[in-house]
Write a structure and sequence with these properties.
The protein is built from twelve helices and seven strands. It is α/β, with parallel strands linked by helices.
Length: 248
């Protein structure tokens, strides 16, 4: 069954299997199979849930290529990594400004909010909710990520909660001003660029011939829109996952 999935010539392939059944291994061998059949390595993109998983898949692909006499160094032209790191790559190709941006993980985003607590207006949000200081920081960070992950328009947030909408609007402006970006915003910016048919985004994304997604059951809405958008540009799509592990 793994061999059949790795060699399936269909433009759209969905592999569902339980934990520990070799889904990632199948994806790795599909990459090796495509390269062995003449697919240009630079046209292959594989999304993984973590960088650790990406490293594991790279090792498996290299081993498979070596077994059939193909120099594993061709892997240097294949993108295997997280959706966030791919979106960061796309942004830097779209606009050189993003090459100067510093990436904030969840903890650093909260530290950013703390360091600019009054400047961003979090104190007003805290007072309006009669909330604690750190709860306000945590909930603001969560609201920011949820808004981006679910592609919620800023105007919708402002309609439901004027104070929160004002804080999130200010946060977006200040992140851009200070040249910071977080994981959720990376994906959203690329999706929005794709939706408005930005020439820079289309130039980079249209180079993808084969798109593969590991742990497909865990993608959120913005990531799903990116995958659909890439597929809509003409690339083949192969996803592997376990619907029993789905969190969305």
């Amino acid at each position: 069954e793994q061999r059949a999935a790795a060699q399936d010539p269909a433009r759209e392939v969905l592999c569902l299997a339980c934990a520990g059944s070799g889904k990632s291994r199948t994806l790795a061998f599909r990459i090796a199979y495509l390269i062995a059949r003449g697919q240009s390595p630079s046209g292959i993109v594989a999304f993984t849930f973590t960088e650790k998983a990406a490293d594991a898949i790279k090792r498996q692909v290299a081993k498979a290529l070596d077994a059939v006499g193909i120099e594993p160094t061709v892997l240097g032209a294949v993108f295997i990594g997280t959706i966030h790191s791919y979106c960061q790559h796309v942004l830097t190709q779209m606009d050189v400004r993003y090459r100067q941006f510093d990436v904030l993980d969840d903890n650093r985003l909260k530290l950013y909010l703390i360091s600019r607590y009054y400047e961003l207006g979090l104190h007003s949000l805290q007072n309006a909710r009669n909330a604690r200081y750190f709860d306000t920081v945590k909930e603001t960070a969560n609201a920011w990520k949820t808004m981006n992950d679910e592609l919620i328009p800023m105007t919708d947030v402002e309609k439901r909660d004027k104070e929160l909408g004002r804080v999130l609007t200010t946060l977006k402006e200040h992140l851009d001003r200070d040249q910071f970006i977080d994981f959720s915003l990376m994906v959203r910016l690329v999706v929005e660029a794709l939706q408005r048919k930005d020439p820079g985004a289309l130039r980079v994304l249209s180079q993808v011939d084969q798109l593969m997604v590991d742990e497909y059951q865990d993608v959120n809405r913005s990531q799903e829109e990116l995958i659909r958008g890439l597929h809509g540009l003409g690339c083949s799509l192969c996803v592997v996952g376990d619907d029993d592990q789905a969190i969305y």
